[in-house]
Amino acid sequence: MINKTKRQMVPPTVMIPRKTYFWSATPSTGKHNRKSSVALLTVLRDYAKLGDKEREITRILAAGEVKVDGRVTKERRTAVGFMDVISIPSIKKIYRVIYDSKGRLTIRQESEKNSVIKPMKVMKKVITTGGKIQLSFHDGQNILTDDKGIHPGDVLIMKMPEKEIKEIIKMQPGNKVFLTGGSHVGKIATVKKIEIKESSHANLVHFQEDFSTVTDYAFPISGPRYTFEIPEKGVEAQ
Fold first, then answer.
1. What is the per-residue pLDDT across 9-33, written as a single tens digit (0 to 9) for each?
2. Which is nearest to 41 in space by CA: 62, 22, 20?
3. Strand order in the sheet with 176-179
4. Which of 80, 118, 198, 234 would be 84's cystine partner, CB 3.0–4.6 Å?
5. Residue 165: which H helix or E strand, with range?
């Protein structure tokens, strides 16, 4: 098991200085893949500045003071990624993991009201042996549901940690999306048209703002009934 990675080899999505230290914590395998995640240790030490040393962060985690998506997390290498919520109740700090305009994972201060809410994009839908529908999400989590109207590309607004569906935002014209990749990463745009490709090429989303991208980069955040507010106040770029 690899616990550390040379900082020069850390994925560009991780927002840390490459020359300050030789090693960086490697996210553990789990919800997010390593290319789209950052270790919890890195977030607490290098992003939130809650301690200068690894042992200081380890002490905070061991005391059960940190929650990820509503659950106490003590493992410093826990992989956190897009839309995860990190909260430290003892100091009244709540952060949401978001992509910045350079495609790096950063943290922004989240409101207490939204601290139990997590938008989760449906990546895959399969019918289980018992007839239930299994949905797989962008962060690697899964749930079972009876709702046949949910499709890949939709975003479910979930109450965490119960994973209770509160709202469904469809990938459809007129809805707003947050862009998680491409040259417009970190921006919000309004869907104009979805172009379905019959070949192996990825489907395209065309926006009212006069640009297009692949559907994988479009993360719906707003529909006719519900709008998820992306928090604006974040950490400074490194």
1. 455 566 555 445 534 677 776 778 7
2. 62
3. 212-214, 204-207, 188-195, 176-179, 218-222
4. 80
5. strand 164-169
